[in-house]
Design goal:
306 residues; alpha+beta; Beta-Lactamase; 2 domains; 9 helices; elongated
Length: 306
C-alpha cells in the first residue's frame, strides 16, 4: 500500500495550492495546535504561522466576548458535529477586528476520533458593515417618511395610517376612543414678532409637552403648521374632555414663548364605526375651529355625538 506521507515535492505543491487560495485556510490538530495556514491568513492578520503554534493560540485572536462561542464550536466538532459554520471576529496584529465567516470540518482517524480541523474562512467585515449601514440608512429613510422633521412626531400621512388602522380594528372588535385636534392660538404673533426660529422652538416645546403628557398608547402627530393631532385609542367623551383640558392647560403652563403665555384650542371627535377617517378628522377640525370662535371659558365641541 502506498505510504500516506507526502513527499517533499508534494508538500511544496500543497503549500503552493494553499497559498494560491483567496480564502483563509487553517488546519489545526486535535490538541489545538496550528498545523498549517495559508498566505491569506498571514496577510490579513499580520502574524507568521510560527507565532501561533502554541496549543489553542488561535483562540487568543478571538475577542473575549466571543471566546465561549469559539470553544463551543470546538466541542461540537469534537463530538462529531461537522461541518460547522460560525462567524467570529479575529484581532489582527495591529489590533483591528475582522469578522470571519468560517466553515469548519473535522477529520477523524481510523477509530473515529477527531484528528484535525480544517477551517476555510472569508473576511466579511466590509460586507457586514455595508449591510449594517444599508439597514441603518433604510431605517433613517423610514423615519424621515413617517416623522415630522422639526418635532420628531409622526407626520400627517403616518397619523392617518394609524387612524385608519384603529378604525378597522374597532369595526371588528368594538369601537372606542377619540380624535383630538390641537391648534395654537395666535401663534403667528411669535413668528412675525420674533422670527421663525423662535416659532420652531415653541413648536418643539409643544411636541415635548405632548410626549410627556400623553399615555404610551396615545398616538400624536404634527399635522402641519401649528396644528397637532392626538389619537386617544381607549375611552369616551368624559376621558376625551379630561385629556383636552389637560393639554390646553399644559400649553399655557409648560410652553414658554417670547410673546408671553400661549393658549391652544382643542377640538374633539369621538370615533364611530359608521365614520371614515376623513369624516372623523373633519369633525375634530370643525370642533377645534368652533372653539376658537368661542369667547370666555373654552368649550369642548363633541361633534361626533351631536
Amino acid at each position: 500500500m502506498r505510504d500516506t506521507m507526502l513527499s517533499f515535492g508534494e508538500e511544496r505543491l500543497l503549500d503552493a495550492v494553499l497559498d494560491a487560495a483567496a480564502s483563509l485556510i487553517v488546519v489545526v490538530d486535535a490538541e489545538g495546535r496550528l498545523v498549517r495556514w495559508n498566505r491569506a491568513c498571514e496577510q490579513l492578520l499580520g502574524y507568521r504561522q510560527a507565532e501561533l503554534e502554541a496549543p489553542y493560540a488561535l483562540l487568543d485572536l478571538v475577542p473575549a466576548a466571543e471566546r465561549s462561542r469559539a470553544e463551543e464550536a470546538i466541542r461540537a466538532l469534537t463530538a462529531g458535529d461537522s461541518p460547522l459554520v460560525a462567524e467570529l471576529h479575529w484581532r489582527t496584529k495591529d489590533g483591528e477586528l475582522r469578522l470571519i465567516e468560517w466553515s469548519m470540518t473535522g477529520l477523524t482517524g481510523p477509530r473515529g476520533a477527531l484528528t484535525y480541523v480544517v477551517g476555510t474562512g472569508i473576511d466579511v467585515t466590509a460586507v457586514r458593515s455595508w449591510s449594517e449601514e444599508r439597514v441603518a440608512a433604510e431605517a433613517r429613510l423610514r423615519h424621515m417618511a413617517d416623522h415630522d422633521a422639526l418635532t420628531g412626531l409622526f407626520n400627517r400621512r403616518r397619523f392617518e395610517e394609524e387612524l385608519e388602522r384603529h378604525i378597522a380594528h374597532g369595526r371588528r372588535y368594538g369601537m372606542s376612543g377619540a380624535l383630538l385636534m390641537l391648534d395654537l392660538d395666535d401663534f403667528k404673533q411669535v413668528n412675525d414678532g420674533y422670527g421663525h426660529r423662535a416659532g420652531d422652538r415653541v413648536l418643539t416645546a409643544v411636541a415635548v409637552m405632548l410626549r410627556h403628557r400623553l399615555r404610551e398608547s396615545d398616538i400624536v402627530a404634527r399635522f402641519g403648521g401649528d396644528e397637532f393631532a392626538v389619537l386617544m385609542p381607549v375611552g369616551g367623551a368624559s376621558e376625551a374632555r379630561e385629556l383636552a383640558d389637560l393639554l390646553a392647560a399644559a400649553v399655557r403652563r409648560d410652553v414658554p414663548t417670547p410673546a408671553g403665555l400661549l393658549s391652544a384650542s382643542v377640538g374633539i371627535a369621538l370615533l364611530e364605526e359608521s365614520s371614515t377617517a376623513d369624516e372623523i378628522l373633519s369633525r375634530a377640525d370643525d370642533a377645534m375651529y368652533a372653539e376658537k370662535r368661542t369667547t370666555g371659558r373654552a368649550a369642548r365641541h363633541l361633534r361626533s355625538v351631536e
